[in-house]
Amino acid sequence: MLIEKKYRPWIRSLTYAVLTGFAVYTLFPFLWMLGTSIKPPAEVRSAAPSFITLHPTLEHYNNILVQSKFSLYFYNSLKVSLITTVLSLAISIFSAYALSRLTRVPGVRYVSTGMMLTQLIPSVLLVPPLYVFMMKAHLLDTFFSIILAYTTFTLPMCVMMLKGFFDSIPYEMEESAMIDGCSRLGIVFRMIIPLSSPSLIATALYAFIGAWNEFLFAFTFINKDDFRTLTPGVSLLRGLYTTNWGSMMAASVLSVVPIALAFAYLQRFLVEGLTAGSVKG
């Protein structure tokens, strides 16, 4: 149904108003967190909290950056997330290519279905057996324990994301390359990977954010400060009887800002990568 011209400005204004309302609703927790991080301690503990402070201070950021091990936790999270991302991409590229091209091999479809079914299992149910495994393998309080857990839980979705894009690449291109003498490995590195850059960026971003934000396994497998990552490190600011909310909000802001900036820059690749395999042709 066509909309008359006189109604279009009103509909456009209403659309922007609704979108602005959703944006404010979404950003409000972050803005409150940012405001709390620059409030004096007395205002943070006030019985009548205010959204805007008239006496901003960087005391909480000084506590986090100078008087705590936040920098170590940040470095550990960055290292673990990057290694998890690289491992997830390296494994999922070849796995997704095999699932995409070997469709005639018996059992391949069952593998894809099984990988998706693993996403239905709550991770909390797997903590006890994984803890026992890590303990017997002497991997507790090591980076390898959480890297192994993160990669395991990230791989199924990474594989399915890449498979959807690989399915949209014409197989005739590979046949032409094989006629010219290119091997399967050469096809993957010279054709598939260069053509799949948007999907690879989306997959890498998914794996990185998943590892960066994960709390349960890092809290369970790591008890030493030298190997502690950011999410359980920030939770330590919550004491038994009191909680330093200002410092906790400052640490949360410093944890969120790098990911938010990276996501804002790479979101176009994320959307393109997630929708790349939805239409074939």
> How confident is the prediction overall: mean pLDDT?
84
Helix content: over 70%
What is the subunit arrangement here? Answer: single chain
Structure summary, number of beta strands: 0
List low-confidence stretches.
277-281
Cα-based radius of gyration, to the nearest Å: 24 Å
End-to-end Cα distance, whole Å, is 30 Å
Q: Count the DSSP helices.
A: 13
The dominant shape is globular
Structural class: mainly alpha
Main sheet record: none
Structural summary, described in words:
This protein has helices at residues 8-37, 41-44, 59-66, 70-101, 108-117, 127-136, 143-166, 171-179, 184-195, 197-213, 216-221, 230-235, 245-275. By secondary structure, the chain is an all-alpha fold. The longest helix has 32 residues, at 70-101. It is globular and about 75 Å long. The two termini are 30 Å apart. 27% of the residues are buried.
Explain briefly what this protein structure is.
This protein is mainly α. It has helices at 8-37, 41-44, 59-66, 70-101, 108-117, 127-136, 143-166, 171-179, 184-195, 197-213, 216-221, 230-235, 245-275.
Considering the chains and any ligands shown, give keywords for the structure.
281 residues, disordered C terminus, mainly alpha
